[in-house]
Fold these 2 entries.
Entry 1:
Amino acid sequence: MAGCDAAATAAAVRQMAETIEQHHTELTHLDREIGDGDHGANLVRGFRAVVEKLDADEPGTPGAVLKLVATTLISTVGGASGPLFGTAFLRAATKVGDAETLDAATVSDALSAAAEGVVARGKAAVGDKTMIDAFEPAVQAAQSAAEEGSVADVLEAAAAAAEQAASETAPLEARKGRASYLGERSVGHVDPGAQSTAYLLRSLATSASGAG
Amino acid sequence: MAGCDAAATAAAVRQMAETIEQHHTELTHLDREIGDGDHGANLVRGFRAVVEKLDADEPGTPGAVLKLVATTLISTVGGASGPLFGTAFLRAATKVGDAETLDAATVSDALSAAAEGVVARGKAAVGDKTMIDAFEPAVQAAQSAAEEGSVADVLEAAAAAAEQAASETAPLEARKGRASYLGERSVGHVDPGAQSTAYLLRSLATSASGAG
Amino acid sequence: MSVGLVVVSHSAQVAEGVVELASQMAPSVRLVAAGGDGSGGVGTSFDLISAALDEADTGDGVAILYDLGSALLTTEMALEMADPDVAERRVIVEAPVVEGAIAAAVAAEGGGGLSAVVAAAREAGGDA
Amino acid sequence: MSVGLVVVSHSAQVAEGVVELASQMAPSVRLVAAGGDGSGGVGTSFDLISAALDEADTGDGVAILYDLGSALLTTEMALEMADPDVAERRVIVEAPVVEGAIAAAVAAEGGGGLSAVVAAAREAGGDA
Ligand SMILES: Nc1ncnc2c1ncn2[C@@H]1O[C@H](COP(=O)(O)OP(=O)(O)O)[C@@H](O)[C@H]1O
Ligand SMILES: Nc1ncnc2c1ncn2[C@@H]1O[C@H](COP(=O)(O)OP(=O)(O)O)[C@@H](O)[C@H]1O
Ligand SMILES: [Mg+2]
Ligand SMILES: [Mg+2]
Ligand SMILES: [Mg+2]
Ligand SMILES: [Mg+2]
């Protein structure tokens, strides 16, 4: 995207919504294995509501777009991922403030703030088999990339790290969220929230690289 | 009652049902103070069902009548007093066996068995502010009276003791049943189940004295 | 088959809602609600509970969750009146009714035996 | 007035049933159900919870009971988004949802303040 302005941010959000539509069956399937089988449906409901709001009235800054995403997800998702992703977008929105466009450092900082928000909300640590297991490595990778890369580089690094990390949640035993009810039986399945985090970051990277 | 046979037992049970109809508003009122306000309605429902069954097919022994009362109360009362009074009548039925008529000793023993059944079911001790506070003194009084008295004497003694004891539940703090949720606030109110126990025994005494 | 579950509550809505919640995490477990007095009111029903116990029993045992003391009394009564061979594999669990039922259902879904299911319910504190 | 209560559950039936049960022992307490995702499904709703918190709040405080971890997350979110002056007198209680709600309701009915109501819920084990 040519300068990460409000329009580009909104376009990236629409792309995230599209990604969720594509993957919701798989996400629901993952959640059926170690949860209540609604993660895909939850996110579809949330992102459809986001797109409706963007269609109705697209905000004028990247931060305002992110805030709209946050409040909409919080009100519509209906599962743990609602307040978690909601808090992530809310912290990211606060971090970018009323900047007209976002540079690589800001995007990386926003990602960090988002991950911190998820930790503050859900109290999960790396290794608990949650979306944090995808978020944290993504933040690390983004920070390194931000030192000399573009926004696209930052998001590409984040997405690649999250994808890798999401797949690595399979051998973990869940210690937070519903999957923790399963104890050892949660081993052998990828965490749905880690996987959706990876998809969302991949979608952002695709948007940023201009291909989306 | 002229020889406590099946017909006299059934008549006494109908008299109990009548007593409950007369006092149900008061019992409900007591239960509203320290419970959920349904004790009167619970017993009315139970004893109406009992009378219906007696009307349909009156059993041929006192024990069978008591057993019918037990199973009907158990199935219809819907509150703690259902399994408690149900167990009481069931134990009494077992104690009297298939005797054709009941004498004073048997009535007293049946009362003891009933009280033991309530203790076994509800695990309450004297002083916990439950129906046991009326039952236990009634049993003591009945046992003394049975040494040389008639069935009517036994039941009169039991009723008088229960009435006295029920009123003395007021200063107690509830330690069993719903009223125990109230802690200290249960002090100052008569226990509904102790009061209904007193009414039921009074009704039996009245029947036995031939006035019922 | 797996261990079955009966949820006894004074409220039909609570019992049915708990079954709804637990079934999401345990779609193949036999979960049976026994709530209310059987005629639309608040209370417990000996007959409803007895029927629910039979319905939940696959032969592998039944864990029973209840809400309040008087539900416990009625449930104990129902166990006592049942065939002792059958009653033996039906266990009343001292656990929070919602949290315990979900934990028990998940344990049963995973193939846990009666004692494992009971233990899961007992340990449930609702901090997941 | 007295302390109000909000029951947050993933199931509308559970939340409403708990309110029904608790109101029997606490007819004058403001008890508000916030169950389900707000559109008939299982889940929690930020909007429902936020509205319930306002409805239960008489000014004397609100004790909040919840069923599962994700209900806690949504409820915390709702508290954070509310006016801090108001949020301060709204307390999420770690207690079994059914047993805790009944104990809390009884304490509130008896005129207990917010901390007494919260303590009553916490101590609730359902052995009455
Ligand atoms: N305490 C937590 N901290 C971080 N992530 C969590 C936590 N609890 C749940 N999650 C994430 O949320 C995902 C489940 O989301 P979702 O299915 O939408 O919610 P629910 O579990 O309420 O049905 C999990 O896969 C996990 O990644
Ligand atoms: N564990 C117990 N042991 C003995 N009596 C009890 C016990 N629990 C409750 N009761 C008696 O039951 C009475 C309440 O009966 P009722 O109102 O019909 O039932 P519920 O409390 O279920 O609404 C109490 O007043 C008390 O006398
Ligand atoms: Mg889920
Ligand atoms: Mg869910
Ligand atoms: Mg009552
Ligand atoms: Mg009752």
Entry 2:
Amino acid sequence: MLDVKNLQVAYGESEIISQLSFSVARKETLAIMGRNGMGKTTLMKALIGILKCRQGSVQVDGLDVAKFDSFKRVDSGLAYVPQGRQIFPTLSVEDNIRTGLVTVGKRKIDDWVYTLFPVLKEMRRRRGGNLSGGQQQQLAIARALVSEPKVLLLDEPTEGIQPSIIQDIARMLNELKKLRDITIVVSEQVLSFTLEIADRILVMEGGRFVHEDLRANVDEAKIHQYLAV
Amino acid sequence: MLSRRIPQWLQGMLRGAAMAGLAAVLPLSAHAADPKFPTAAVNTTGLAVTDDVVTVGQLHSVTGTMALSETGSVEAERLAITEINKAGGVLGRQIKIVQEDGASDWPTFAEKAKKLLVQDKAAAVFGCWTSASRKAVLPVFEKENGMLYYPTFYEGLEASKNVIYTGQEATQQIIWGLNWANKEKGAKTFFLIGSDYIWPRTSNKIARFHIERYLKDCKVVGEEYYPLGYTEFQSLINKVKLAKPNCIYSIIVGGSNVSWYKQLKAAGITGESLAKKKQILLTISTTEDEVRGIGGENVAGFYACMKYFQSLDNPNNKAFVPAFKAMWGKDSVIGDVSQAAYLGPWLWKATVEKAGSFDIDKIAAASEGVEFKGAPEGYVRIHKNHHLWSKARIGEMKLDGQYNVIAESPDLIEPNPFPKGYQ
Amino acid sequence: MHTLYNRALGGRSGTVGLALLCVLLFLIFPLALDNFRLNMMSKYLSYAFVAIGLVLCWGNGGILSLGQGLFWGFGGYCMAAFLKLEAARNIAAESGSDQIRALTTVGLPDFMDWNQITSLPYIWYPFKSFSLTILLVFVVPTLLAYIIGTAMFRRRVGGVYFALITQALCWIMEISFVTRQGWTGGINGITDLRTCLGWDIRTKSAQIILYFLTCGLLIGCILIGRFILSSKLGRILVAMRDGEDRVRFSGYSVSKLKTFIFCVAAAMSALGGALFALNVGFMSPKLVTIEPSIYMVIFCAVGGRNSLIGAVYGAILVSYGKTYFSEMFPNLWYFLMGGVFILVTRFFPDGLAGAVDYLGPMLGRKLFSWIGRAQANFPAAVVPIPVEANEGR
Amino acid sequence: MIAELEIKNLTVSFDGFKAVDDLTFSVEHEELRVVIGPNGAGKTTLLDLICGKTRPTGGSIRFKGRELSRMQENSIVRQGVGRKFQTPSVYPKLTVFENLEISFPRGRGVWGSLFFKQSEDVRERIREVARDTYLSDHLHTSAEHLSHGQKQWLEIGMVLIADPKLMLLDEPVAGMSVRERQQTADLLQRICRGRSVVVIEHDMNFVKQIAHKVTVMHQGKMLVEGSMDEIQANEKVREVYLGH
Amino acid sequence: MPLILATSFAELKDIFLMQGFAGFSLFAVFLLMALGLAIIFGQMKVINMAHGEFLTVGAYVTVFLSHMVVNHAPKLLPYYFPAAIVCAFVVAFILGYIVEIGLVKYLYNRPLDTLLATWGLSMILQQACRSLFGAREDTATLPEWMMGSWSPSEGLDIPINGMFLLALAIVMVLLVYALMYRSRWGLKVRATMQNRAMAGAVGINTKRVDRVTFALGCGLAGIAGAAFTTIGSVSPSAGSLYIVDTFIVVVFGGAASLLGTVLSAFTIAQSQSILEFFLTGVLAKIFVLVGVIILLMIRPQGLIASKVRR
């Protein structure tokens, strides 16, 4: 579903990601783990097109989007939940969700959104900025989902979120995978959360992958070691 | 109007280029120095006078807010100079123009004046429009000993050896006009309105003084000033309505004119409606140039007091108007100031020929009594105080943007820039 | 001595830059320009004072004021008031016209006569004294800046809002000056300034002396600017520009520091205005209003908003450009000036100084390699020229 | 022992939303207090209120007997309150040395800073703080080139150099590696000698390591206060925060 | 005021009514000027010093059309004005679109640089108008129905062009409100202006939104220009007279709020109009400006500020 080949990303002179290749199968959930500053967020931003890739290809369902602007990538089936949520603070919750509807050209928010995130229904007239962190995270996911993506990119969805909500998010993602035909790429530092949702885990360090594990036979100790050094 | 003004812009540029070419070519083909007036004799102070060319400066705003007013003067001066060159020039020398842009900015005027005098050694400068620009350049002309021909009607209180004022000073324009309003229209109460700077303020002071001192039972019921470029006059109009003056005496200048008259009309004050209530509007600042921007339909029936109107019926003007239109397009209009600007080069030529020299001191001394019989306004003569003797006239505005001349002072009025008792 | 060298002159590279400027101002211009152009140069340089002030408060302190014309104008008006009173006292001896002489009240500026003011307004009294005038040239604008600065920075008005409010203040000043024409000369301004303490400022020699005075004071302002920027205060300014809150929580009163640098900039502008009045013999509300204030910011932007010396070059170049373009193309120079502003902001956001920083080392390398080659050809003949002059800025 | 910092009935509301609601809270001398709580519980707002960034709607904040809630930020700093922000705010264009120099508590007035002289004792103090915050090798590096963790340290150093009596640290180990976290824990242990420290933190392992006492906030109110063990045993805390 | 005492009560009532309306029409003028800037400055944070010149462009388009009609199709004179407004919008819109692509798009997030660059742009546009149309003032020939006054009773004259301006301003505000807060396009604009990168990442073509938003702001200025031909003159430098007033209105209202802009235009216009009646024009202007600045110092965020924790 998502094929990344020889991806190279750089800020000015310094290369953050070099020659990175991986692919994610349909309906698979891939987790990319690693410490801060190892290139996870850079990779995510490069996939959605906020950062330009120097080289390489990013294929979504066979279509190379590497040269596209962000909005075209969303059009091609990517959706993105950024680190730090980045909802639009002065827009109401409803309007925040509607921004995600732009690509599909709909006006009305489907019922399943509020079924999946009941708390957003309660808050739908509030301004996004006045929501709590966990609610904002749900809003950011809802906003990404309404564009009916083939591939969902989640960048550190648990960062700064209280543990109880982390549980909720994991539950919601698993439910979503059952309901829809969706591929997920998630970057994470929290192993417990990752283990609940991921089918496969890649560990990133210095802009490249250094370890791969399937959930079935995950080597927790080894991954801990990577996260800990 | 506008549809054919685009090519006119091109035409203007082409004409300018052609003229520059003319000025460059003519001297070569023309005769050498007039043997009667060898350069060494007519130019003893190092002015830019050669055997066949004399350089003059032209200093008006062609950019900025004042460009709209000064364009007419630029055009009129160019016409006069072209005509003089065609007629053989001044003392056998063709006139070459160095144009500088005052950019509607008084300090720039001073800088450019200095450049024209010091660098270009201009034998005369035709230029300035606002009082402020004249005040800015005056010290330069006095210090560097240059000669300025200044075209605008102005507040007076000035007389310089280095300036010839070809427009009227305040008393020439104001007093006769007020007397007319009082006698012919029975005006007793006056509301004085002006743009906020020295000419309207000084003029209104003279007007107030004249009204209160010399006109019987007359009084001023209001006096108001608005910044240059101001566009909101509704409050003022309401105040005028409240005061109900017999005469609205208006000295609004530049772009504000349009707003002022359009809003007057919108508030129901027109020449017609005023006439019903035995009121008049008299202006000394709105020439045909401005009326073109205002639209005749907004001003019809109001009165203006000036020395020149385009519709003036005399042989000089009958030749002048077509010549102007031939040069600057058939839609061009000529206002009082443009006419005064046209006088400048001609008066200078007459003075130089009278003095037999380009030297500034000699010209200054010879100016008194110089006449110009071909003046579109009829006949003018330079007074000892370097202002012109001229007539005053009342025009009534018509729908087509022209004035109907309905009254004229019987004699030339003596310029009196320092009127006793009026200050 | 050593610290002074480092702090005021800015070490070696700073000294080189300053030396180049001095050579240009004190040697090349006086030799190459005739009196008329040299006097224009004095005029340009009096704008450079404002630009230097802007480098301090905008480039380094992050406070963009679009109202520097206000302070410049107050400085200029104070000086002009003094000169005008002196001219008015000598009117009988100076005036060319008998009529003017007869109608003018001795000791009263001419425009007051025209406005039927019969005795000198009280606010003009201080300008009878030269020393008091010099004091007021600095005190009035600085006090004004202090009031504006305290009021605005206390309330944390900053950035764009500060810029727009100062712009409006400029406008207020212009229309008030225009409307009080009996006191200020109205839209005409204060014209026809003649002598200063009996010394005719319109003569050629006076203009040359004034030129050197302007240059000297300008260099003085650069040194003061260098001193401020090299102090801890200078570093705090930069810190404040990048992170105001952190400075606040390091125990500094941000509003006081900002007010201080704003006042310094105002005082420098005022000095420039006063010198303008002396150099040009003229002061006008047109010089105080919005347009010149924006030009002043543009001088600074073109020169490089971080570079004190760049600001001087910026003022000279833009003003000269304006003069040159308008002399060559009186009808079209707006296009050229407008184009220059757009190109500079678009391609050289750091102005000339930025371009020099960027191109300088490159040229330096080229020069170095050229010298290297030359040396290879003539082994012992050429001593390598130090190239680091442009680095380390 | 008298509490150094005493907060009584503190309330602040934004647009009707009470971020801190009638909070009463105190910190003792040389105590290291950790405040935890879910996002939006008002932890950061609490620090903002203490250091003067936000003005309270009601209540009082007394430090060493002085009322802080009406003071300007810089005056609060001069009372001996230092603040480190959530996202490290250092001066990117200045070097580590200059960053610390600016934070040195001398020459804070306009004239003082203009004529501030960088004497040997200043330099010595800067070096000392840099050593404490593991930045000795980076004294002349521009702050923008430091790693995230180093920036955190630098900001702690900038607060530390002013020798505050109360330090407020908002998420000091966010984005640090485990080793860096350990170093930071050591640093905090050293720091709290001679002063009180309030830390906001999410990392429970880290909290366990450093905290003398823990306060749990929820919806702008204090939920419970006690030792780490007591907190972890508390039912209410489990419910709102740790979850299951 | 002894004048007032000398006048009858009925007359006074009329004057006060007219004076009140004068305030309203000034309000309409301010509002029309400020609407475009409220979008460009308020939403996009671009300090467009050339805003006045877009107004001039709109005015020239109207004048041009009016001359065409007068010369070639005088019968259409009563009807051409609405078409002129549309044309003014379109021309200014296209010009704004080009300016965004050529200049403004490089300067987002550098608001103070936009100020300098657009100042250069304003010089160029002014000179372009001057070279094309001449430096002189020009005026549009207005349809007869738009001139003169509506006089419900003797002594009471309500200017028709003032009513027209007021109606136009209200319509424009409602349209802009609908566009910004009720349409999907407005949603895109608001999202883009808050977080450009994120807006792209949810599927909004931010570059297009930027271009169209800027152009729309310019187009609104064009409409204001067309409307102003009913009360004022057209000259190349006409627009520059309005620019400071316009910024003051937008800043005073609270940059990002449409309601704020409306309120601030109303407050400033009415106080200026009332002060003008009792004082003089210049003093009124000074008092209003000083008042606004003092209020801005007390309340730097303007009249209406969006309250949200960011």
